[in-house]
Amino acid sequence: MDLVYALPADVEFVAAEGVSDCTVEATGHRCRVGDLPAGNTVDVTLILRPAVSGTLIIPVAFTSMEADLDPANQSGEVPLEVPAASDTDLALACTAEPAVVLNGEALHLTLVARNEGPRPAEAARVVSQLPAKAVLEDVELSQGEWSATAPDLVEILLGRLEVGATATMTLTVRVAANGTASHTARISSTQPDENDANNECSTQTQVVPAADLRVTKTVSPDPAILDEPLHLFITVTNQGPNRATGVHLDETLIGTFEILRMTPSQGFWRLETPGVQWQIGTLEPQAAATLDLVLLASELGAITNHSAVVADQADPHPENNVVARVTEVQRTGDLSLTLDAPAPPLILEQPAPYRFTVRNRGNSRPRRSCSAISSHRPSN
User: Degrees (nearest 5) of the Cα angle 275, 277, 283?
Assistant: First the structure.
């Protein structure tokens, strides 16, 4: 028994299963099926490659050397539905993290492309419109390559995207504009997409003002001297990116001391138990304010000083808003030596009294002292 079928001009024969010895004849293709005992069946699979879309009709017939009692059912037509090349449904989804970001901090935009089929997508391409005043910092792709075609445009060439396959793209940006940061992206390929409603996605992220305040402090002298001035020199710097308003610093002081004076470069100060508060006001980006706080240590031990600065704006790095120091208070000694010599003339080989006086002008008793006196006789 043989299988005979005719293929349209735009359909290519690839292979056949369940048959053998396929040949091309003037009337069409013929494949050998072999003997088929009574009551048995045979499954024949033709693998074809159509070059056009639409409904293709393939005439099929079985022939044998024996007479057939019902020749009408030996032949028929097989319809072949070939989808058009435009039947590629690309979908694009976008997310942005975090939903609220500080001005100048990293914003991650993630795009996921998917081919819903039914055909592979060739030369898939994504164009991403970045938010206003956004600086692109990094791009990570699961496939393909990217380029910045404009300061706010990123083009991603994904290439071939199989049916059911996905591609992930992550763009990291830093936005320098407060308010709503809008991001849009669109996917396309060389095939038309009848369902373009899912080809575009967008995100909106709230960008809030941020000011990175930093406080530093120097202490002089260190250790402190009992009953002597102790200078705490404090500097507050706004490292940006935005203006800082309502800036104030709380200085906590623990120990026995007297505040001699406070000299701020801007703003004013007031006593706040257990220390002082410095109202700085407004600091522009990269601007700094200083405070010279002078104490008088009145008791031995230690003076603990803790500085903490805040503002109305969020701070991306609060760890540098605080600085603490512990300063030891010590006594000091100030020894002086005076000489009381006899009035001239001196008498040869007669005693001449010399008096040395050592005086401690400091506020502590030296733990150990020594003195050495040397003399020499003139050569003549």
Answer: 150
List the CATH code of the domain at 211-330.
2.60.40.1530
Please state whether the predicted TM-score (pTM) of the whole model is above 0.70: no
pLDDT tens sequence across 18-30: 888 888 877 678 8
Q: How far apart are the C-alpha atoms of 19 and 287, rounded to whole Å?
A: 87
225: tokens are 């001297």
**pLDDT tens digits, 69-115:** 777 777 888 888 876 655 789 999 999 999 999 999 999 999 999 99
Domains of the chain by residue range = 2-82, 88-208, 211-330
What is the sign, positive or negative, of the torsion defined by CA atoms of 341, 371, 300, 221? positive
Residues 33, 54 contacting (CB under 8 angstroms): no
Question: What backbone torsions phi and psi does residue 292 show, to the nearest 5 degrees?
Answer: -105, 105
φ, ψ for residue 68 (rounded to 5)?
-105, 125
Strands 322-330 and 11-17: unpaired
Architecture of domain 88-208: Sandwich (2.60)
